[in-house]
Every structure is written in structure tokens, then in C-alpha cells.
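I would love for you to help me understand the pair of lines that follows before we discuss the fold together.
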Amino acid sequence: MKKFISLFLLICLLFTGCNAPKQPAEAPQQPSQTAEAAPDEAAPVEGKEETSYPAYVSEPLPEPLTSATAQCLVENRLYTGGFADWTATLCWQDESGAGTVALPDGASFLYAMAPTPDGFVLLYGSLPAGYLDELGNFVRLAGEPANRHGLAFYTAAGELVKSTLLAEEYDTTLGSFKDMAYVDGGFVLLHQSYLVKVDENGLELVRLSLEKGAGVGFTALASLDSGLYALRVPMFQEDTPASTLLRLNPDTLEVEAEETLDLDVRGLGTAADGGLLLNAAGAEGGIYHHGEDGALTALLLYEAVGGNLPGRKILVYGSGFLVFDQYENALSLVQWVTGVKPEPVELTLACTGSTGIETVIQEFNRSQQDYHVTAVSYGETGDFDRLRTEILAGNAPDLYLFGSYSPTAPRERAGLRPSRICRELSSVLDKTRFVPTVLDALAENGQYFTLPLSFAISTATAPESLIDESGLSRAELDEIRAAHGDLPAVPRWMTAENLLALTCPFYLSKFVDESTQTCDFENQEFYDYLTWCKTWAGDGSIPPQDEQALLTHTVVSNVANAVTQAEGTEETPMTYVGFPVETGYGHLLHISAEIGISNETDCPAGAEAFLTYCVAHYAALACRDIPAVAADLEAEIDHCAQGAVTDFYGREKRLDEDALDKFRQLLEETTVVAGADEALLSMMGDEAAYFFAGEKTAEEVAAILNDRVGLYLMEQG
């Protein structure tokens, strides 16, 4: 607590100290939620010095905005620009209310804003070549971007005075403008590759460009009485220089001073005393005051509010700060609350596989003060033995998150079946919220011990003109193949080993009985299966780009991906047929994230709160596959149906009625869950390779597998 109190005292000096200018009386006040952020028990102790603590507050954007791309503070009024119903919109808000502001003609995208002595200026223009829409999906224009930009001048009250187009066209193919600053004699515009200064008539006066291939880019600007500052940071490469603070000549943009920062700084701002603010990420993430001598003073360490707030712009706002970056969908604030900081209950989340859960945890920790979740990783493929050891030692987590590449068979052999280690979730489960087939895949005797967050489907497509139904057997596919002998059965790259690995999950239960830990490969069905894989396989060569095969393996990992796979080409539409099976359909369900509450948690209320938060927010914050929450999936479907999704080349990926029908049918038919034991599959692949090479008979392979797999099952048991 001493550290937090000292931080608060420093804030007081900067905001209200004798030697620092006071915050204007009309400055925006913290929204009403802030006053309620501190519970009653956190009030100052009577007779003791009043204390305060920082609290994270996420406020909705002013209506009707759903995504923000530009922001600035002018006197007592916050201006935020972005998208509303796919249209560029500029809004204002202060203690008196909120509203919208008129935009000049041609304002399809709002790039940046900056205060001026008379109000503020807006950098607007045509859509950039690539950008994020209001749902957070990347959009690339199909054609060449217009590359027109302009300056719009406003009073402090938001009245549009005039606008003018920039004389130059600035290419947005490799990035666009992210920030701007007012300086005497003009305006400095920040692109990741260069800075340009223009006058109020839109004429370029001077430019500062970064060396191509240097691996660095500009990310933030700040114009102070002490000078113009720009932040240069590494871009994508680990071996490039650290964050560097540049002081520039505001007239020539020449570098007057260059300072390598010890922190991972990503944003700049102006302090209440007129000094420079730095926004740092990483282990020492926080907001720092940069003195004239280069000394850094921590005003806020993000660990105090549950996690870092990334952003290229810091605004002194209310009793704390507002941190902004392009494409925000909320106002991210840190405000100081009177009282004693409550100590949250610590919760542990055991994670196996790749989940992308870190952002969700950070947002949850910042969203409330009662609980704090920490993730403990047990490996990309799941170190279930280590997890079991921790549980037996009395260190069971509060929650479990099983992610992609985390097979279920070894998990269950380690005694970690969800029904054994997790609470039954009927008290928090609303079945209507989830995709039915995905939720049902996790049911155990009609009960649910984990909930799905995301999934993908592995299947096979075929030309619709040749195969128009799914659920075909190997014999039925053989007949179709015989009728089209000129068409490769599968792509040439798909060897017999590949085909075995892809189809084995549909057949494994016929040869291995996990419940009794026994196996039987010495039967005609296994011999026929090996023979089919060998006769259908390709030779491992690279096929011509336009070569069509009868069956093509595909992974449907998002709705836009489903569009591509279902449409094929204009000449050859495709359909989902699946791999051959004797019963059901040959589609394989990969549940890439599922969450459960530990039987041994000491805080079931906190665990439920985090599980509920994950269900509500995982799709927006972390989901890299198909959302398992039905409403999130339907939102993506609607997005694609509107034609708002493009590929990297700007080609529209529209989900038409036919593609939608195919996709929904695929969801209904996918019931077989991936998760077979990788060690067992590896044994089958190793031994089957001798048959595929003609070195052993199917009978010989089966006999060896009976011995190897049988011993493995006995050892694992």
C-alpha cells in the first residue's frame, strides 16, 4: 500500500501542488460510475489521512459510436471520432451531455485530431487501403484507395469553421496516418514511416522520413512548450533498437535530441504541469512523467489496475488519465478513487494448449475489484502429469481452460476428465447461448462440466457437381472415383500417411477400447482401411495450382473461411462432404477452448464470475476460431452476409444464402470430437508406413500394433 500512496501523493503534486498549475475547474469529471467504484468499506478511516487508489474504468463510447479512430480533449470537452453504423461520425461529451458534430464532405475516415488555440483540427479523408471496421475485422479495399486527406477546423464548441484538402496524395497501402499535433505555423501529421508538416491551406512544408528496412516506425506525437516530441518504436522485429524519444525542431522537423528509453514506451501525452507523459507496456507498464533532465517518475503502475493499457495517446482526464489508441471500442480510463484499495481474492486458471486467454484475463481483472485471476500454463500440448501432481499436492487451480492442441485422451488417462475435477455447471449454464452441437459434444451423461468458447472443423470438400451429399462410406466414394478416373482422388501432396492421420479419428474407436484399455487391429476392417488409405493417396508431389481433386482437406476456422471453402470457384462450386465413414458424417470437431470450474476452488463465486465473463467476452477479445456462443457466431454470419469482409487483396467474402445453408448443415452434422491420443496415432502412423512402402503386409502391421498399443495402454492405465 505504501507504493500506491506514494504514487497518489506524486499525482497530487502534479495536479494540485503549489508549484504545478491546477487542473482547470471546468475539466471533465469522472463519470458517475467512478464514485461508485469504491465500495463502502474502502472509505477513509476516521481520524487518519485520506487515501486514494487508482481504479480502471471502461466507459462506453458516446452514442452512436461503436469504434473510435481519433480523439482529443479541448478545454472541458472530449471529442471522439470513429464509425457508427459503418459511417464516419464525430461525437462530443462533457459534464453537460453528449452529441454529434458535423463533418465535411468526403470524410469517410477520421484519422486524427489535435487541439489548437482556437479549438481543434481534424484530419479526415477517404478510406485507407486497409483498416479495421466497427466489428474489429480487417478490411482491405478491393480497388486502389483514393488517398485524399483534408483538414477540418472547429471551434472549441464543435462548430465547423472550414475545411481544406491536402495538396499531396499520401499513399495508405503500407499504413496510414495515426496521430497529429499543432505547432506554430502548421500541423504535423504522423505516419508510421514519416512525419509531414502542412500549413492550414494543406500545403506540405517539410517531411522527415525513416530509412526503409530499418525495422522501426513512428507511433506517437506530443507538442509541448518545451518542443515537439515523436516516439519511434521497433516494428515486428526483436533485434531492432528500443523505443526512442525524439525532440524535433517544430519548423524543420530536424532531430534536435535523441533519447533511448529503458522502458517499452508506446504512447505520449501532455501532463497537467505541461510536461511530457510516457505510456509504457511490459513488466514495468504504466504512465510516467518525463522530466526535462530525462528523469522518469512513475505516476501510475498498471499492475495496480490489473494490467497494461496500450495506447499511443494519453489525456489528463477527470481525476486521472484516459488512454487512447485507434480502433478502441470503449473509453479506457484510470481514475483515482477515495478510500482504501480493496484486496481482491486471488484465483488461479490452469491453461493447457494455446488459448489467447491473456487479454481476457487482463480485461476481467481491470473490470472489477473483487477478484484477480492469474494464468498458469501447462504447455502447448498439455503437461497433464505436472497438473495432476499439483492437484495431488493440494495446489489445485480455481478454474481450468483446455485449449487447442490439448488432446483429451492423455488428459483423461491422467485422471483429469472434467467430470472428475470440475463442478457441474447447471447453475450457470444457459444452453440456448451456445452452438448446440458444440455444447453437446462436451456433455457427460447429460451434464456439463466445461463450456465451449471456440471451435474449428476439419473436413473434406468436393465439387458439388460430383458429390452433393455428406456421410458417404469408403465403398460409395470408390464408386464415384471409378466414374471419374481422370480426377485425382485427393491432392497429390496427401500421402497415405497424411490420409491416415486425417481419417483415423473416425475409425480409432473400432480398434481401441479406451474403457477397457484393450485393442484389436487383427481384423479385416483394419486391413481394408489401410488398403483404402494406400490406394487413395497422392504421391507427395506439389500439384498444379488449378488442379482439382475429388476430395480436398479443409479446416473451417472462421465464417469468412467457410465462405471460401463453400464457394470454390465460379466454375466449380464446392460442398462439404467429409471424409468417408461407415456411420454419421466425416467432419471432425476441434474444440479449441473450453472452460470449467475446479471442484476444489475456495471461491466458487469468483470462479463463476470469471467463467461468465469469458463466455461473454472471449469472442471479442481472444477468439481466433469460430465462436461457440451462438450470438457471437450469428454476428459474424451477418457481417459476412453483408459483404463487409474482404481478403488481403480486397476481394469480397460474402456469405450468400447457398453458402450459409452449407455452413449451417456442416455445424449440424459435425459431432465427432477430435482429441485422440497423439502417441497412439504416432504408433499407428509409424507401423502403417511399412505397409504403405510395401515392406510389410497389413496382417504383419496389425500384429505389431496389437503388441505396441496394447503395452502402451497397459502402461498408461
In short: The chain is about 25% helix and 30% strand. The longest strand covers residues 451-463. The two ends are 51 Å apart (CA to CA).
